[in-house]
Amino acid sequence: MKSVLVTLFVTGSFAATAQNVGINTNTPEATLQIVGVPATTTVADGVILPSLTGDQLKAKDAVYTTAKTGAIVYVTAAASPTTTKTVNVTTAGFYYFNGSAWQPLSAGSTVGDVKTGLQTADHNGWVKLDGRALSSLTTSQQARATSIGLSGSLPNASNAVPLQNGSTLGSINGDMSKTIAQNQLPNVTFNGTTGSGGDHNHGMKYVPEGTGGFPVAAINAFKQINSSRVDENDIATTDRTTNAAYQNTGIVQNGGSHTHTFTTSSLNGNVTQQTFDVTPKSLSVNIFIYLGL
């Protein structure tokens, strides 16, 4: 402690009041106030905090308890591998102890943060979500990925939109194709007319009274269907017994099956069918997750 006080008095004035301490000032306005000498170009101003590597800081895990909350250090290199307290010590910079873990002092990134960018590859601890195996990452990145619930491989964010949908974090769900159900079609009624080309014939069977009969397709095989009897003398040509009478049975053949074609206007206006695309208009970017170095 004596050597520290000597240095302070040599390089500048040191003043202590009942409550505050001042360096280069006799009237400190806070618990500690340091006043620089900006007009002197040969003197460097500023405060240099303790600096150490991430691994050196990690080695001190046991001594950093809740009583050390608020401590600030400068880390010159990331810890590798990390521990619970140094999990965020992934790059050089200022860190403060929050009572349980070291956090970046400046507005920085936390493991698990996701961002979009125009970068094409991993950078500064940001890892592209391209579906690669976690084993391809650094040992520290693998440990951090596991700590936030990832396993096996990174999510593949290609053609995916970030969405808070209640599914497992980091999972990819859904697709860009949709099937329309009938009840999703417009409520449209179609009208039209059939073609007139439905001409056809129905045959009728006739059973004559008495013996004999007309041959198939004989032109005189039928006579006055509405008459109860017609004598043979009314027939010019016959092979029936003389005076045998016609008998109407009323039996019609069922060989008159046929169809009608019904044509309506096209549902889509008679234009070329288009693909139903649900992909939103988008800005092409890459998606990254922060896992540190």
Question: What do you see in this structure?
Answer:
This protein is mostly beta strands and 293 residues long. Among the domains are: 2-34, no CATH class; 51-104, no CATH class; 114-167 and 284-290, no CATH class; 207-247, no CATH class. 8% of the residues lie in helices and 13% in strands. It has three helices and twelve strands. It has helices at residues 2-11, 54-58, 139-147; strands at residues 14-16, 21-23, 32-34, 51-52, 72-75, 93-97, 102-104, 114-117, 126-128, 204-205, 251-252, 286-290. The strands form four sheets. It has a four-stranded mixed β-sheet. It starts with a helix and ends with a strand. Mean pLDDT is 76; it is low at 1-10, 215-241 and 246-250.
Quick structural overview:
The chain has 293 residues and is mainly beta.
- How far is it from the N-terminal to the C-terminal residue, by CA? 38 Å
How are the strands of the largest sheet arranged?
4-5-6-7
Number of helical elements:
3
Overall SS class: mainly beta
The shape is elongated
Low-confidence stretches: 1-10, 215-241, 246-250
H and E order = HEEEEHEEEEEHEEE
Oligomer: single chain
Rg estimate, integer Å: 49 Å
Keyword list:
single chain; 293 residues; four-stranded mixed β-sheet; three-stranded mixed β-sheet
Strand and helix map with partners:
Elements lengths: L1 H10 L2 E3 L4 E3 L8 E3 L16 E2 L1 H5 L13 E4 L17 E5 L4 E3 L9 E4 L8 E3 L10 H9 L56 E2 L45 E2 L33 E5 L3
Parallel strand pairs: 2-3, 4-5
Antiparallel strand pairs: 1-2, 5-6, 6-7, 8-12, 9-12, 10-11
